[in-house]
């Protein structure tokens, strides 16, 4: 049986919608932890700075899978990579709710980071090479929507059910459904049909520049520095907002959760405004 070489407009639209849902799902775990941390810390009798090990483990996994995403995609394909990554992330999120020790949760953070990094790199590459820059902005806005939902989901779990585990169970279950969706559409992701004229197509996966050659470029190091500074400041502020408001300012849980979600909502707003500005320039 031959591989599908062209997708219909409806199939392409379905892939775009699925990519957006994937980025919403990718953002939700990042919004969960900041609100869950005070309860996790109390459950495991941890020091406040113990969170550093969790962040380090997740970042390590994320960077590893991002660096090797090209080889992973070449071996599994885009659909296979996304399905496996979502399943891995779901296993880690659900595992958080089952493990009895903090070090086990930190170990699972590596798996969660591996899955998230592969999803992020895989979808970014696919959308950039098949659908262009405009849809990339909406893709990242979808992440912002997901990371905004995270604090709301966790705050609801804490207020209504008095459990931080419920939030991870809800998001982990959503990741499992997403993994099944990617698995069922795996042949569609193998298609080469794109909505651009042939001269405008960009096959990013055809580039095979060695790591050494890439790292010799000064602009690469500048971008790495900017990435670490920007994401470090963004994620640190978002992760500690809830703890600061509840532990130091005595703000009620539901209000603190709303403020934590509002912070991430500005991320989404920025992406939407960026997309609107880009559209106005192309008109």
Concise description?
This protein is mainly α. It has helices spanning 9-44, 51-67, 69-96, 102-130, 133-161, 165-184, 186-189, 211-215, 218-248, 253-282. Helix 1 (9-44) packs parallel to helix 5 (133-161), helix 1 packs across helix 9 and helix 3 (69-96) packs antiparallel against helix 6.
What are the SSEs and their pairings?
Layout: H1 9-44, H2 51-67, H3 69-96, H4 102-130, H5 133-161, H6 165-184, H7 186-189, H8 211-215, H9 218-248, H10 253-282
Written description of the protein model:
The protein is mainly alpha-helical. The chain has a single domain, classed as Up-down Bundle (Growth Hormone, Chain: A), CATH 1.20.1250.20. 81% of the residues lie in helices and 0% in strands. 35% of the residues are buried.
Average pLDDT metric: 83
What ranges have pLDDT less than 50 throughout 5 or more consecutive residues?
Answer: 1-5, 192-202
Number of strands: 0
CATH architecture: Up-down Bundle
Oligomerization status of the protein chains? single chain
User: Quick one: biggest sheet?
Assistant: none
The CATH class, by name, is Mainly Alpha
| Strand percent estimate | under 5%
- The fourth-level CATH homologous superfamily is MFS general substrate transporter like domains
Query: How much helix, percentage-wise, in residues?
Result: over 70%
The figure for the number of domains is 1
- What CATH calls the topology is Growth Hormone, Chain: A
Q: Distance N terminus to C terminus?
A: 43 Å
Secondary-structure element pattern, one letter each = HHHHHHHHHH
Helix/strand/pairing category: mainly alpha
**Morphology call:** globular
Give Rg in angstroms.
19 Å
- Tally of contiguous helical segments: 10
